[in-house]
Amino acid sequence: MLPPSSYFYMMGNFGLQILVIVISFLQSLGRITMAVAVDVSQFESITMAPPDPILGVSEAFRADTHEMKLNLGVGAYRTEELQPYVLGVVKKAENLMLERGEFKEYLPIEGLAAFNKATAELLLGADNPIIKQQRIATVQGLSGTGSLRLAAALIERYFPGAKVLISSPTWGNHKNIFNDARVPWSEYRYYDPKTVGLDFDGMISDIKAAPEGSFILLHGCAHNPTGIDPTPEQWEAIADVIQEKNHIPFFDVAYQGFASGSLDADASSVRLFAARGMELLVAQSYSKNLGLYAERIGAINVVCSSADAAARVKSQLKRIARPMYSNPPVHGARIVANVVGDPALFSEWKEEMELMAGRIKSVRQKLYDSICAKDKSGKDWSYILKQIGMFSFTGLNRAQSDNMTDKWHVYMTKDGRISLAGLSAAKCEYLADAIIDSFYNVS
Amino acid sequence: MSASSDHQDSVFSHVVQAPEDPILGVTVAYNKDPNPIKLNLGVGAYRTEEGKPLVLNVVRRAEQMLVNDQSRVKEYLPIIGLSDFNKSSAKLIFGADSTAIQENRVTTVQCLSGTGSLRVGAEFLARHYHEHTIYIPQPTWGNHPKIFNLAGLSVKPYRYYNPQTRGLDFQGLLEDLGAAPSGAIVLLHACAHNPTGVDPTLDQWEQIRQLMRSKGLLPFFDSAYQGFASGSLDADAQSVRMFIADGGECLAAQSYAKNMGLYGERVGALSIVCKTADVASRVESQLKMVIRPMYSNPPIHGTPGDWSHIIKQIGMFTFTGLNTEQVAFMTREYHIYMTSDGRISMAGLNSRKVPHLADAIHAAVTSIA
């Protein structure tokens, strides 16, 4: 006796459709209830979700057989040979950990204490009075995403109705996080396509117009996807308007040390706000700067005006984490704690980070030079040099981005973003040709 | 410009201090206690005879291999985790010869241990399933109701433990599930029920299955002790396998915290067994939509390739029947840490400490009614 489903396969699609029509008709006459021996799934009405827009780029790249293909969709660092990179300090830390024979016991809900201490100090500076005053609540989170999600859940619970303002554009997953956490959000102007730069006036204006006590999501450095960061003076003005409207700054720091090569320089925006005595939320990720992508290691920090408030906030963050995943994974946290805690490893890490950031800066320069050498129209491409971090907004529109892929086998996201982390010096000329062709010959 | 006293009230003034988690908080209190005779029978984590945590040899060897493997990278896993791990996980619980697996009717996604698997499953059901009530046994693991509530499900109890007999209230269970609305979700502990340690017999499981299928109730298994309860991976999965052998649908959350000793690595999996392969593939796509905004993709470290067989242990928990005052007495006077419902983790006990525990229990029950 074959399972009922095989009858349908044998009958073929057309036969199946006929059968369904007949059954529907008979059901509507009340003559039969699903007497046909196929039980319907309880999940029958579920539709196929669309593929993730960023991961889809890598999938298409893998399927492409062209020899010149280039994957600039990836948000992960690649060496000049376009290979993934596990940092030397990470391997050393893991060997140390293995030698020590560490246990695998549950971490506390808030994560590894040594990691939490190290991450707060990295963010604010080890001698920051905020740390001495115990005014920062730090909870280990599942990298940037998980840390943002904990913060979003805290906002939903303790600031019901409060909105989060996100930049236009921003990382694609931000809105998903706030949607799933049921936190309302709206956008503030950020990217100006005319200048391929920051729409500073629009940004200030939109932040000012937001209801008092809104949360303003800011990228600490190396804005994703544009690569366009405010200047120090602009950061001061942004802090002014946030204070004026009693908004709460909410930083996403995914590239500390990775953007400029300097941990301190990349934290300057956060430290500027903290030094003003403002309360703030900061989500951190070690995916890029320590290459720990798959270990899911990050933290949510809440800087409060008192140690008492910080203790209470931390306890409530724990209450959110427990029914989500109980306690965070230990491995990445130990790596970070070991690297930061050992002066030799810490030094070595800083060198490796400078190398990674350095390679990206140099391909950025080389790309710019190649474009300028080939494009004699006098167009100003210098915005490429002014941008910072892993990504560059090329200024290409959707049709032009499609041309990059279809004609040149250069894979990137439809918003014109390329990941310089996936570019080698050897491929800069080719990429320059592709960009010039797409810009001038496609509209 | 300094961050001191002239600032306004904190925006967090209204945030109150949360109490410590009732289970994990026991360990916090235990750690603070300086008394050398202290004993931690709270959290369900295995201890050796010397009272030390255990990392299985097979795990150490696997880790050694991983760290020495030059080609191993730390790139993001796919949203649903490592494909090999997911396949192995499904085979482990459903059986390598399971028709459901062969027919591609099972979707399995790597999650953050048991808690993460339960949460992702519950969020999925709250979003895509027509019934939003989940029935949970009385009592159950303390974290269960919180997980389901936060995921958007409402929680109702079904009778389970009979304190008079210290056994299963089978009649009560059948009555309560019999009264549940058609399609309701039912949480089932696959084996080694936490906190009571009391499991249905195979006959009773069969009766439960028939009742649930006749009412279209959706089973959601929590499997945190496969192999750890009886020592046999297959025996501990019998309840689950019975349910999918009938061709029906179910959810199963697996944890590798206890049976692989991987507690801190947060390794687990959620499987959803569906009527058809097409449904399974659509369900998988929607599971990704739940995971991506929660933590993007799972941690890699705890998931090497092959599994070896696992050491047998007896089931982890016992309900002592002690009341809250007696438990408090044991902690205060004897430095024995346990959850206030009287549950002790046998895995935290060794033979040297048994006399101390016996003394404590005796004193508690004689001094406090």
Secondary structure: number of strands of chain B: 13
| Rg of chain A | 25 Å
Percent helix of chain B: 25-40%
Q: Uncertain runs of chain A with pLDDT below 50, 5 residues or more? A: 1-38
How many helical elements of chain B? 13
N-to-C CA distance of chain A:
61 Å
Strand proportion of chain B, as a percent range, falls in 15-25%
What would you report as the Rg of chain B, rounded to the nearest angstrom?
22 Å
Strand order of the largest sheet of chain A: 2-10-9-8-7-3-4
Q: Give the biggest sheet of chain A.
A: 7 strands, mixed
Largest protein interface, residues of each chain: A-B, 89 and 91 residues
Task: Give, in spatial order, the strands making up the sheet with the most strands of chain B.
Answer: 2-10-9-8-7-3-4
| Beta fraction of chain A | 5-15%
Q: How many DSSP helices of chain A?
A: 17
Q: For the residues shown, what is the average pLDDT of chain A?
A: 91
Number of strands of chain A: 13
**Structural class of the helices, strands and pairings of chain A?**
alpha/beta
Overall geometry of chain B comes to globular
Catalytic activity (chain B): L-aspartate + 2-oxoglutarate = oxaloacetate + L-glutamate
Domain Aminotransferase class I/classII large (chain B): 37-302, 306-361
GO biological process, one term (chain B): amino acid metabolic process
GO cellular component, one term (chain B): mitochondrion
